[in-house]
Design brief:
Length: 78
């Protein structure tokens, strides 16, 4: 027996509000990450282009990887 198919019309209205709240929280976190980016990363962008969420996450990942590598090198050299 197959489960019934539920369309978007059958979802409760508070589900849409919950998703909106999640998006708002995610957008806020992305903006906080953007503020943490080093100015060098931000200078790489075109002056009139908008940073996409994926770009910000990619830059933060690269920054984190560089920081980890530097930290490991300092531990090895010490």
């Amino acid at each position: 027996m197959t489960p019934p198919i539920i369309s978007k019309e059958h979802l409760p209205l508070n589900h849409k509000k919950a998703n909106s709240g999640e998006d708002e929280g995610l957008n806020s976190s992305i903006e906080q990450l953007k503020c943490l980016l080093a100015p060098e990363f931000l200078k790489q962008q075109q002056p009139d282009s908008k940073l996409e969420k994926a770009d910000i996450l990619e830059m933060m990942t690269l920054n984190f990887q560089l920081t980890c590598c530097q930290s490991r090198l300092l531990q090895v050299c010490a």
